[in-house]
Amino acid sequence: MTVPTYTPDAFHVPRRVAVPDERVPEAANPVPLAFQVMADAGITKMPETWDELKEACVTLKEAGVNPISLGSMNRWPAQFWFDYMVSYTAGAEYRQKLMAGEAKYTDPEVVTAMETWKELTDLGCFAPDSNAYDWTEAADMVANGTAAMNLMGTFITG
C-alpha cells in the first residue's frame, strides 16, 4: 500500500474538504493527519471534498480508527468547528456579524452550520467522549495512531 507523502500542502486538509462552497479564504488552522493510519485503513488519497471527508470517516470507522479526535474538555477546540461551519456555510461576513452580535444564533445560517457539523457527528466521525479530553490529549490520539485527524492551530506542530 502506498503511504501518502508529507508535503507542506498535505499537512492540512484542503479548504474544499470543510468548505462546501468557495466563499471563504484558505483555512487558517491545519488538520494534522496520521498518514500511515489512513493508509492502513485503505485511504491513499487525502479527501478533497466534503463528501470525500465523510467517506473517509466511514472507512476509518470500519477500520476501527477514530476518524477525528476532538478534545473539547475546555470547549475552545469545539469553537474551531463551529467557526468553520458558520464561515463555510454562511460566509465570513455573516460570521463577523454573528460574533459582533448583529446576527442571531437562531438564524437559518447558524441552523445550516449546525446541521452541516451534525453530519459528521451522525457518521461517528469524532472520537467518543470528546468532552473528556483536552486539546493535547486529542492531538496525542493522532500522534499515537488512534485517530486520523484533528483540527487544531499551527501551534500543535512538533
What does this molecule look like?
The protein has 158 residues and is mostly helical. The chain has one domain (8-153): 3-Layer(aba) Sandwich (D-Maltodextrin-Binding Protein, domain 2), CATH 3.40.190. The protein has 7 helices and 2 strands. A two-stranded parallel sheet has the order 1-2. Helix 4 packs across helix 5 and helix 4 (76-90) crosses helix 6. The two termini are 26 Å apart. 36% of the residues are buried. The model is unreliable at 1-28 (pLDDT under 50).
Task: Count structural domains.
Answer: 1
Main sheet makeup:
2 strands, parallel
Strand order, sheet with most strands? 1-2
Distance between the termini: 26 Å
Total number of strands: 2
Q: Give the overall form.
A: globular
Mean pLDDT metric: 79
Radius of gyration: 15 Å
* CATH-assigned homologous superfamily: Periplasmic binding protein-like II
CATH architecture tag: 3-Layer(aba) Sandwich
Number of helices: 7
Strand content: under 5%
Helicity range of the residues?
A: 40-55%
Name the helix and strand elements from N-terminus to C-terminus, one letter apiece.
Answer: HHHEHHHHE
